[in-house]
């Protein structure tokens, strides 16, 4: 990506005076303008001789910053908070919901949580399942209160934060609140 941004910058500067390219040096005090076909990207300041070069340098700098660091539409939560929210289980228990809440107990990268749910086809009206979130990577849910396994691992999957369970491939889509 840096190479293409450098090429855009170089192209914009060369449009003002074809054949002339601003040269950069690694030390700002010794920067000079030369007729050259190459430049060093280790520089910190280009030589700008007139207003045309200043405008083009500003345009190129803005384009480079937009291309090199895209702004996410919505910043994703960090850590265990990435698992917070309300989910459904349309494959195994249509009509039911699951809400993941974090508890106060935390040890290192492990955050205790609980899954409160129910109301789906073939499951109790209400239930609470103990869980632990490992960083922002995975959640381990204990399904023994519902007669299931005690170490069911799920990971965040997709841009909308769905949870995919590794053992059976089931998916809990995140519901919009």
Mean pLDDT: 73
Q: How would a crystallographer describe the biggest sheet? A: 8 strands, antiparallel
- What fraction of the residues are assigned to beta strands by DSSP? 25-35%
Number of helices: 2
Number of strands: 10
- Rg (C-alpha, Å): 27 Å
Strand order of the largest sheet: 3-4-5-6-7-8-9-10
Order of helices and strands: HEEHEEEEEEEE
Q: Residue share in helices?
A: 10-25%
Overview of this protein structure:
- The protein has an eight-stranded antiparallel beta sheet with strand order 3-4-5-6-7-8-9-10, with no helix packed on it.
- With 177 residues, it is an alpha+beta fold.
- Strand 8 (152-157) and strand 9 (162-165) form a beta hairpin.
- Residues 1-48 and 69-73 have low confidence and may be disordered.
- The chain has helices at residues 2-16, 51-68, and strands at residues 21-22, 33-34, 85-88, 97-107, 110-118, 127-134, 138-141, 152-157, 162-165, 171-172.
- Helices cover 19% and strands 29% of the residues.
- It is globular, with a radius of gyration of 27 Å.
- Helix 1 (2-16) runs antiparallel to helix 2.
